[in-house]
Amino acid sequence: MNKQIITNPISLNLPVKSISNGTTFSYKCVNNKNWSMNFLSEDCEVITGFSATKITSGYIDYGDIIHELDRDVIWNNVQTALDNNKPFNLQYRIHTAAGTEKILFEQGQGIYSRSGKLIELTGFISDITQLSTLPSLQIKNCINDINRLAAELGYISQRNITSISEREVLIAIYCCQGMCMKEIAQKLQLSYRTVEGHLNRIKMKLGCHTKTQLRSIFLRSEIAKELIKNYW
Fold first, then answer.
1. Does residue 89 belong to any structural domain of this protein?
2. Is the pTM of this model over 0.85?
3. Is residue 9 assigned to a domain?
4. Cα 13 from chain centre
5. Label partner for 25 (CA 20 to 30 A): which of 13, 36, 43, 183?
6. What is the pLDDT of residues 14-56, one digit of tens each?
7. How many domains does the chain have?
8. Do the beta carbons of residue 164 and residue 146 sit within 8 Å?
9. CA dihedral sign, ordered 60, 66, 72, 73
10. What CA–CA distance (Å, rounded) separates 122 from 73?
11. pLDDT tens digits, 83-127
12. What are the angstrom distances between the C-alpha of 172 and each of 19, 74, 179, 206, 224?
């Protein structure tokens, strides 16, 4: 497979998502399990508590602050993306300098020489801790609103409403954002079949036969639309 040749990382046009109220920093790093950083923008310290100098100098490796249970998953997902010459999207936890835990969202891709050799990785990392922890009540409210709308639209009767799980709603939201099942599985660290099963169950519970019908219900809900817009 031909690799995308990028010789000027500054000109990258990565499809970075707009994340409300999230601090973001850019990076360039080596493709190793330490994620040895060649460059970090200043906001790295705002998010991690470690200065860019401490991390780029090797005083502490970026890989060391990633949650132990997330390290192998991140490594495998990045290598798979590189093997397929695609950008990667990651969601993982870190331990900050203060000892707290944060949830980050990362988008990146490989930078290659003209001969196709991988030079480094580059991308953007955002703090989505609040976005990942605050919507629980919104998701519960969304469940009630979606059930109401499904009944109003005649997909199900008021007497036959079956409770939807938060996981099913979350998968439906990602689906409405345009993500395919493979991308959702990677993001939630689930198997493709598990995601497919959740999606089929929520369609069955809401009386939907297609993803288009499912999307039409969610887009009628103001609560769901807010989650679709902001939940990453």
1. yes
2. no
3. no
4. 18
5. 183
6. 434 444 346 899 999 999 999 999 999 999 999 999 999 999 9
7. 2
8. yes
9. negative
10. 19
11. 988 999 888 889 999 999 998 999 999 999 999 999 999 999 999
12. 19, 24, 10, 12, 10
